[in-house]
TrEMBL record, chain A:
Domain of life of the native organism: Bacteria
Enzyme class, spelled out: oxidoreductase
Keyword Metal-binding applies: yes
UniProt name for this protein: Glycolate oxidase iron-sulfur subunit
Source organism: Nocardiopsis coralli
Amino acid sequence: MTEPISGDTDQRFSELLDDCVHCGFCLPTCPTHVLWGQEMDSPRGRIHLMEQMHEDDVLTQAAVGHFDNCLGCLACVSACPSGVAYDALIDHTRHKVEEQHERPVPERALRGAVFSLFPYRARLRMMRGPLRAYQATGVGRALRKSGVLDRISPTLATMERIAPPLSSPPPPLPEFVPAVGSRRARVGMLVGCVQGAFFPEVNTATARILALEGCDVVIPRSQGCCGALSGHSGRLDEAARFTRALVEVFERADVERVVVNSAGCGSSMKHMDRTLEEAGADPAWVRRARAASEKVVDLTEFLADLGPQAERHPLPVHAAYHDACHLSHGQGVTSAPRELLARIPELTVSDLPNKEICCGSAGVYNLFNPEPAAELGDRKGQDAAATGAQVLVSGNPGCSMQIGSALERAGTPMPVAHTARVLDASLRGLGTEVLLGP
Amino acid sequence: MSLAEHENAGNTGRAATADDAGTASAQRPATASPRAAAVADLVPHLRAILGEDGLLTDRSQRRTYESDGLTHHREVPGVVALPTSADQVAAVVRLCHEHGVPFVPRGAGTGLSAGALPHSDGVLLVTSRMRRILEIDIANECAVVEPGVANLDITRAAAPHGYYYAPDPSSQQVCSVGGNVAENSGGAHCLKYGFTVNHVRGLDVVTPAGDLVRLGGKAADAPGYDLIGAFVGSEGTLGVATRVVVNLTRTPEKTVTLLSAFDSMDAGGRAVSSIIGEGVLPSAIEMMDALAIEAAEAAVACDYPEGAAAVLVVELDGPTEEVDAQVAQVEHLCAQAGSFETRTASSAEERALIWKGRKSAFAAVGRISPAYIVQDGVVPRTALPEVLRRITELSADSGIRVANVFHAGDGNLHPLVLFDDAEQGAWERAEEVSAQILDLCVEHGGSITGEHGVGVDKACKMPRMYGPDDLETFDLFRRSLDPDGTANPEKLLPTPRLCGEQPGVQRDVHPLVASGHAEQF
């Protein structure tokens, strides 16, 4: 049971709703409107449904369905000329849905299972062993071909499909990585749940780049989930609990900035104060969260700001850069990663067509809404293939898994790498094989 | 996703209105009007035509369609139809025709005259799922598209071939071609390239009787009456376009955008007159006043020159040499008129930045005012300075702020009348100022709308521009195609119910009818 929504946040919700002038500029960038072409599955329509919920106190089954359909990609926030804070609106709405709407038993069970697994790195890591063994047998390929999993449970099928191929895990990161050469900053680093469990090499690369660029890197072992997955699903109490713990961890770390390499986490961590406020936390906590949020920075934006110090070695490869929604729309970071990539000698970088449209990953969306997620993944896979690039670069683990699996499904497999791994390869003078495979 | 799951799925234990859950037929209230009964009776037939997924009957879903871009007018549609083909559109319209049920076509719902205001006892026919680009035919310099295709998507598809679609309303990334056809939409570049009507070569139209007919085609200039000309701008009163053949225009060799800042609107107006007077034909001349600039800055940080009381955005396109010469000429003319800063942009990014401020201006006004009315009127170019002065006076006298954003080149004004909708009577006062601005336009030999259309919003203002005989002629024409008045009723032309006055059409018989040359339906 979540905290009841206070009158203050209700009032604020009402004011935020009023900002929408119904111009419709959000429609063409909304992934569900692209798929289904109906008003209720567009931001403008959902805002209308929110108004109905707010003014008439009506929360119909239909409305809940349309709120659930929203990927929370925030492309509408980028597109909106009136500055409607759709991110705050949908978070509040989801909270309200969880508070007031009774979901059917199977749906509740699925949600419970997902949220007792994904925000916990240790539990996710425990899945690595069985998953690796499973992948080694080749059963997966046969199973995928048979389509049996799709018939039993689309969610299971999605989880099976998007799990990245796992090698043996690299050694855990030390709690402190000293700067190489002259020290320019002392930064904290978020490890992330999915990133930490499934893409540990991205974290290793991140720590290494930061050190090579002259940063002392503090990586507190006690850090947990940032609360993004819970917050974006209306599980506000859970999100607030994770947020408080994380604020404390990085307060203790005594760092100038907190560097995040996962777009979804960074986007959410930039408004931890709003999360606590919505959850009814006292003002002192909200202030602490605000101070912590102000330190949060995406890896690429931090590096672009800092300017290069380490030498970039040539990396002759054609890369396509995919804008993770929670980096481009959620944090407004679009030029920094492209700038960093473009500065690598002999690397060329292309944009994807329809780059503002979500790939369908959207946190745990692809687990709860597998069909539309797969359709969006297929579209994104086609757009990625159309670039003719050798490697797809993205700043979010969810996107990497989603698009990678879509490309494979379409028979046009393409390696997917995090921006950090590309930079790492250049800084260390490794060849392109690191990214492209043998 | 299945709409079937959403429908009839019941509520969530909270209060809900009676007809939230059920179909209209199941929940028909006892007091339903005969027409409501008819629309409810249509539901099974509509479902047979459109499938489960293509028909919305749930009230909360229908409510999301209650207005278009002009939110002051609201009406929950009886049902919402989401056809995917021309055949489905024709079948739905035929059904409406047979049962005397009104239908209202809607594209992306961005219209600003409530032309797509639904009918509570009718079918809202939404083309948002008919959005395939059927053909890009470069050899014939045309594109064939479905009506739900967004205006800008035609340009996106044609761009790799060096072509684009010229009409460019500010909402071009979202507004639909079908809507553009219905409203004869213009845009910033109409000055040189004309309105939608100048770019439509062929149309497939479902008539109000439900017949699918083809007007024109890929070849230019069909003989006989210009039915395309009549259909474009008819605001859904003559039927629904289901397929549109549009001209593609070759992308100019060079395009340069100038941004010139002035310390008064008068000075800006003088620059416009002298540019046109010197025989330069820019593709666009746009003007914004201080309030509009403030809004745009707040929304998109367009970084226009500080302290400007007016900015002109002038775009020149064509062969490189011609454009270069004209750029120098326009810079000179602006300076002569008193510009204190002129910026020139030729790269796509820099030009986009200049346009960003202008194109976002309407919606951006939401940043500086809780609510506003976007007015749309036309005056002869020479009357611009006088009319702008009078608008400023009107604003000062009434205490209601008016921001001005307009196509200065063709005298198409877009005053934005700002008000606070939470304040009692504020809308009425703003509406009054807005109406007085239209009177100013008509007084000066202009029009009550340039490109937003008449819809519901201005239907009652038509008599300010047209005499009773004019209106009756329009009505006769309309009735020749829609004798029962089921196609987007109570739009475009005034009716007694809508306007609460004798609009003229009920008066004497038309002279043509009286002389036996025409038949009164």
